[in-house]
Amino acid sequence: MPPKSSAGASFPVPETASLFQLKPLPSKFSVYFRKAFSMLDFHPITLNDKCAVDSVLLSSENLSCEYAFGTIYIWKNVYQSQISICDDIFTASYRTPEYNCYCCPQGKGDFEKAVAELSADAKSKGNVLRINACSEQEVQKIEALFPNRFAFLSDDSCFDYIYSAEALANIAGRKFHDKRNHIAIFERTYPNWTFEEITQANIVECAEMNERWLRLNESKDEVHLSAEHKALNLALADYKALGFYGGLIRAQGKVVAFSFGEKLNNTTFCTHFEKAYADINGAYPLINREMARRLQADFQFINREEDTGAPGLRRAKQSYRPAVWLKKFSAVEK
Description:
The strands form two sheets. This protein has a seven-stranded mixed β-sheet, sandwiched between helices. By secondary structure, the protein is α+β, with helices and mostly antiparallel strands. The chain contains twelve helices and 14 strands. The protein folds into two domains: about 30-155, Gcn5-related N-acetyltransferase (GNAT) (Aminopeptidase), CATH 3.40.630.30; about 160-325, 3-Layer(aba) Sandwich (Aminopeptidase), CATH 3.40.630. About 35% of the residues lie in helices and about 20% in strands. The longest helix is centred in the last third of the chain and has 16 residues, at about 220-235. Residues about 1-35 have low confidence and may be disordered. Strand 10 (about 255-265) and strand 11 form a beta hairpin.
């Protein structure tokens, strides 16, 4: 979840916590639950699940970062993630300090049955069903299948920023003038800087840089940084097995920035982490540009995830002019 510089475009802010009033589920579904064979088979996610999960998620039309195998895997120790993949339907369950929730079912299987069984699963655990990371199309689908069954909530701090890979690679035009200036300062200060792909030969240096970065920033949001640190360490530990791709910037022999992520689908790459030293002018925009230059041949878009509601991060992400500010919704059972 990357930071950046300042100054940005203005974007319309959608209504948050908006509700559509809905009706109760027909009683036939209580009979349906008892008779039908369950599609759910929740278990803790492991690397052994990657092939099966990718076979569903890589063809998903939902571009949210939540629907990448690596996202689910690296945050599993923070959110106690479990997954289910059965009858060509994938879903996952999570625990947060506020609530238990599921992601929206993905795949070519029976969507209606999957949602109905999530409802039964939540009730069996004494929870209210909450399905997170629903696209606008999925909201419409749920409402059509289960009229008046759910309230739909939105929180723009969770919306994903999706950019044109070509635009990030070129950072052309007046709107990116400041970013080019910061990069020019870096290149003048460190004329012998290099970009390297992250490999097993240099990944330890990324981990060491992240430890130092954490010490320099530990006075900030400690809860979030601790959770992110846990996820990032797991990502680096299983980097190769997860099929991640990334790069680093080296200046005066030291790693000063790194970034990595994974393929979300055939058009979109998802950047999971981007770190740079804030006191090194130009390090952030440089690693962003260099990654985009290497990704643009294979991907049209780069999903750089959400801004978590942090004002500085929001300004930074908006300043890169996203092609799409991807709305997400939570479907909460009444």
